[in-house]
Amino acid sequence: MYNLQEKICLVIPCYNEAGRFDFKKLSNCGDNCFFLFVNDCSVDGTLDLLKRNLNKNMFILDLEKNFGKGEAVRRGMLHVLTLPVFKQVDWVGFWDADLATPLSELNKFILFKNTFYPKAEAIFGSRIVRLGSSIMRSYKRRTAGRLFATFIGFTLGIVCYDTQCGAKLFRKDVINKCFKEPFVSRWIFDVEILLRMGQKNIAEYSLGEWTDVPGGSLKVSSIALAVLMDVLKLRRQYF
Predict the structure, then answer these.
(1) 211 close to 138: Cβ distance less than 8 angstroms
(2) Measured between alpha carbons, how far is residue 89 from residues 26, 29, 172, 220 in Å?
(3) Which of 9, 12, 16 is nearest to 47 (CA)?
């Protein structure tokens, strides 16, 4: 058990994740960690599986149709505001359902923020390969990630090393600023969050562990053009 030092609620977007849940790991965070699973109209039994494995720290938001990850996250973050546990928690974030970033990293997120960026309003996980870390990511995906980071740095002025890591925490008083309005972007909503925050008061934590879990359906090459269009939309919206 991880014995979290601060109370956290994690939004977990779910689309056809029935084969990738690990409820044993999800239960290892103790009483200080809450989960809101956002079922994005899955068709593989995800919803039934979630209902069978719920405990007192888990909640479900079942969306009426498939909206995509960004909108599922946004609706989930806003839904947390309506839950009774919202008054208890210090942080609200979103996390990938496959736990590519292990939940044991949560305490390290908070420790890093408290030590180096005490005024940070958000903490973003970053898959930086460094001595002592274990970042299990394919060469192809790592290369694509660096090309994307260079591209948005040039076109949008983004300085974040890794915008697309699916592990992020937010102080609960900035949720409306980040998530109240629908995203302009469908595929790179993480970048849009950075722009909404003005890239200020954000700590980027270099993960100690991350593993590329097989089974995901999204291929980077299949959405390359859509991502380019999203970048153009963000330029029009925020510049």
Answers:
(1) no
(2) 17, 14, 8, 35
(3) 16
Write the DSSP string, 100-134: SS-GGGHHHHHHHHHHH-TT-SEEEEE----TT-E
What letter would DSSP give residue 38?
E
How confident is the model over 144-181, as pLDDT tens digits?
Answer: 999 999 999 999 999 999 999 999 999 999 999 999 99
Write down all domains in the chain, each with its CATH number in brackets. Answer: 8-238 (3.90.550.10)
pLDDT in tens, 10-56: 999 999 999 999 999 998 888 999 999 999 999 999 999 999 999 99
Q: Which of 24-33, 67-76, 116-125, 192-201 has the lowest mean pLDDT?
A: 24-33
User: How many Å apart are CA 71 and CA 94, to the nearest integer?
Assistant: 12
CA atoms within 13 Å, Cβ hemisphere of 99: 17
Q: How many CB atoms are closer than 10 A to CB 194?
A: 25
Q: Which residue shows structure tokens 């994005």? A: 40
Identify the CA nearest to 107 among candidates 6, 235, 191.
Answer: 6
This prediction has a pTM of 0.95
∠192-10-67 over CA atoms, to 5°?
50
Sign of the dihedral through C-alpha 165, 184, 15, 12: positive
Is residue 48 within 8 Å of residue 71, measured between CB atoms? no
Burial group, residue 113, by CB count within 10 angstroms (0-12, 13-18, 19+): buried
Helices and strands: H and E segment counts in the chain: 8, 9
